[in-house]
Amino acid sequence: MKALQPDYPTLDQVVLKSFDLHALGVSREGSSAPVRILMEFSTKDGSLNWEMAGVSRNSTKAGLRALIDGLHWYLTITNVPNKN
C-alpha cells in the first residue's frame, strides 16, 4: 500500500486482519475450480471492520479483486475523493 500513500494517506489506517482461500467445486472441476479469497480488514483503532471476497479461477486475480474492493470500500466510506 506504500505506492498508494502519496495519493491516499488515510490508507495507513487500514489493517489486513485475515486472508482465507477456499477452493469451490473441486470435486466437479478439479484443479481448474474457482477459488474464493476472503479478506477481513479493520482500522488501526478498531472503529471499522469489514470483509471483502474475490472469486476467480486464478487465485492471484481473486486476491487482487478482494484487496482492491476492500481498499475502495474504505476510501468510499470515509469520503476520500477518487483521484482518477
List the helices and strands and how they pair.
Layout: E1 14-23, H1 26-29, E2 35-43, E3 49-56, H2 59-77
Antiparallel strand pairs: 1-2, 2-3
Describe the structure.
The chain is an alpha+beta fold. It is 27% helix and 32% strand. It contains two helices and three strands; from the N terminus they run E-H-E-E-H. The protein has a three-stranded antiparallel β-sheet. The mean pLDDT is 90.
CATH class: Alpha Beta
Task: State the separation between the terminal residues, measured CA to CA.
Answer: 17 Å
The major beta sheet can be summarized as: 3 strands, antiparallel
Query: Which sequence of SSEs, written as H and E, runs from N to C?
Result: EHEEH
Please give a handful of descriptors for the protein shown.
84 residues; alpha+beta; three-stranded antiparallel sheet; 2 helices
Q: Could you write a compact summary of the structure shown?
A:
This protein has 84 residues and is α+β, with helices and mostly antiparallel strands.
